[in-house]
Amino acid sequence: MRLWFKQRFFSWFDSYDIYNGEGVPVYTVEGKLSWGHCLHILNAGGDQIGTVQERVFTLLPKFELYEGGQYIGGIQKGLSFFRPRYEIDCFGWQVEGDFMEWDYTVTEPSGGLVATISKELLNWTDTYSIDVPDPRNALYILMLVLAIDAEKCSRN
Questions:
Q1: Cβ-Cβ contacts under 8 Å for 48 (sequence gap 6 or more)
Q2: Distance between CA 137 and CA 14 in Å, rounded?
Q3: Sign of torsion, CA 31 36 41 46?
Q4: Most exposed of 83, 85, 140, 143 (fewest Cβ within 10 Å)?
Q5: Which pTM does this prediction carry?
Q6: What is the largest CA-CA distance in the chain?
Q7: Contact predicate 51/144, CB 8 Å
Q8: Distance between CA 41 and CA 47 in Å, rounded?
Q9: Nearest to 6 by CA among 22, 15, 17
Q10: Rounded to whole angstroms, how far apart are CA atoms 93 and 134?
Q11: Running DSSP on this structure, what letter comes out for residue 70?
């Protein structure tokens, strides 16, 4: 399953549209006013299905992930020098990026590929191409991409 993640150009808060490979919108992300980033994920019908909430006052950036209203885990920026690394306390997945922080791979502990994420260059707004072999993981991968993008935005 391929998803295209595009940040909206004119928006007061973080807002994104996520399209499938055919260009049909499948998710919408709306930023909410709060301490730190708070992003609500809506399905095509407008129902809130997930939330990514930044925890403030932590040594390294950390985000909590919610499916519906249920906490499912968190993602935290790991301490690394050359390649960005994120620690996920749910699913057992590992996220590692390249030196330029444009491409990421998400793997299982056994080494199996969960997703690849690539930042598209030469766009007015943040745009990512997300390849998820198992469509059941699409929402969770989207949450990870939102957390990574929010962390990069906060840092810059």
A1: 40, 41, 42, 68
A2: 23
A3: negative
A4: 83
A5: 0.88
A6: 42
A7: no
A8: 8
A9: 17
A10: 14
A11: E
Going from the C-alpha of 100 to that of each of 107, 143, 155, the distances in angstroms are 19, 21, 14
Nearest in space to 53 (alpha carbons), one of 61, 45, 63, 43: 63
Long-range contacts of 135-138 (CB under 8 A, 24+ apart): 135/1, 138/1, 138/3
Distance separating alpha carbons of residues 97 and 3, to the nearest angstrom: 18
Q: Look-up: residue for tokens 């969960």?
A: 114
Nearest Cα residue to 35 out of 58, 19, 17, 65:
58
CA dihedral 44, 48, 52, 53 (to 10 degrees): 150
Cα distance between residue 132 and residue 52, in whole Å: 19
Per-residue pLDDT of the chain (156 residues; tens, 9 = 90+): 999 988 877 655 678 999 999 999 999 999 987 778 899 999 999 999 999 999 888 778 899 999 999 999 999 888 777 778 888 888 889 888 888 888 999 999 998 999 999 988 877 777 899 999 999 999 999 999 999 888 877 665
